[in-house]
Amino acid sequence: MKKEYRVKKSSEIEMIVKYKQSKANKHFVIYKKENHDNSHYRFAVSVSKRYGNAVERNKIKRQVREIISKLDIIKIYDVFVVVRFTSKGITFNEINSSITSLIKKLNILR
């Protein structure tokens, strides 16, 4: 995943959260915000230290990034994914179906 597709600044992440357009389920919370400044979508992933050690946190982040990169998200959106503690121990297919269903509910797929 190219770095230009990631939201890096905490101020930008705060703006996405403050916009208050989100959907959630047992495992994830996904926020969205329109951003017409870029020619592609951007996203960020957040995992709490409560989730586990660095290896576990990095693994779930890699999986979420892979799933989001494969989705056909509309170009004008910034997306912020929060991984909840309850998602620990679920399989890749469950992560995929969970994130895909939330993205569909947010109406940001083409």
Quick recap of the structure?
The chain is α+β, with helices and mostly antiparallel strands. 36% of the residues lie in helices and 21% in strands.
Outline the fold blueprint.
Elements: H1 10-18, E1 22-24, E2 28-34, E3 42-47, H2 54-70, E4 77-83, H3 92-105
Parallel strand pairs: 3-4
Antiparallel strand pairs: 1-2, 2-4
Helix pairs in contact: 2-3
- For the residues shown, what is the average pLDDT? 89
Rg from alpha-carbon coordinates: 13 Å
Q: What is the CATH C level class, in words?
A: Alpha Beta
How many angstroms separate the termini? 20 Å
Low-confidence sequence ranges:
none
Number of strands: 4
Work out the count of structural domains. Answer: 1
Q: What CATH architecture would you give? A: 2-Layer Sandwich
> What class would the helix/strand composition place it in?
alpha+beta
Number of helices: 3
Pick out its properties:
alpha+beta, four-stranded mixed β-sheet, 4 strands, 110 residues, globular, single chain, Ribosomal Protein S5, domain 2, 3 helices
What does this structure look like?
There is one protein chain. With 110 residues, the chain is an alpha+beta fold. It has a single domain (3-105), classed as Ribosomal Protein S5, domain 2, CATH 3.30.230.10. The protein contains three helices and four strands; from the N terminus they run αβββαβα. The protein has a four-stranded mixed sheet, sandwiched between helices. Strand 3 (42-47), helix 2 and strand 4 (77-83) form a beta-alpha-beta unit. The chain is globular. The protein starts with 9 loop residues before the first helix and ends in a 5-residue tail after the last helix.
